[in-house]
Amino acid sequence: xxxxxxxxxxxxxxxxxxxxxxxxxxxxxxxxxxxxxxxxxxxxxxxxxxxxxxxxxxxxxxxxxxxxxxxxxxxxxxxxxxxxxxxxxxxxxxxxxxxxxxxxxxxxxxxxxxxxxxxxxxxxxxxxxxxxxxxxxxxxxxxxxxxxxxxxxxxxxxxxxxxxxxxxxxxxxxxxxxxxxxxxxxxxxxxxxxxxxxxxxxxxxxxxxx
Length: 210
Description:
This protein has two helices and ten strands, in the order βαβββαββββββ. By secondary structure, the protein is mainly β. It has one domain. Strands 1, 2, 3, 4, 7, 8, 9 and 10 form an eight-stranded antiparallel sheet that branches. The chain has a two-stranded antiparallel ribbon with strand order 5-6. β5 and β6 form a beta hairpin. The two termini are 31 Å apart.
């Protein structure tokens, strides 16, 4: 094979559309792909998913393996490393400062949001401290972003990120400032699902064909 400098179509640039599921996901419960449309359209038509709208700073998946060390007398450095732990985090910022997005960022139950902003009584998010033994709220996350750097195919090639179990665990700041937009920076801890032990998956797909 002849030497080439690289493949420019493998350079992917662009933000992803993010959807949060009402419950956790598995490989068998995620919405099915429709060959005739983008997965963004499929999820938009599915009432089990919520489109969180605009984001800032994109989407970041961070994998943090934890390795143990074996030291022996005859070697000054470690002789062997072994994997003893794993942690995966997903970080983004919700640029649309709605109460619905704040509920997701705080990992609250849907029951803590009530009312209608279009009437005088208003829409209310109950900022509850919770109770001892209260189960944290886990939700599935799906993001759909560009899958190629080839402009000719960019409209039909996409990359889908799926997280089966996501739990918001970091501090969430709510602000109202003169020179900055109100947004919610959120970091989700991803957990493996029970059957496969998988955190989720990343799929490159082309739609519009057979």
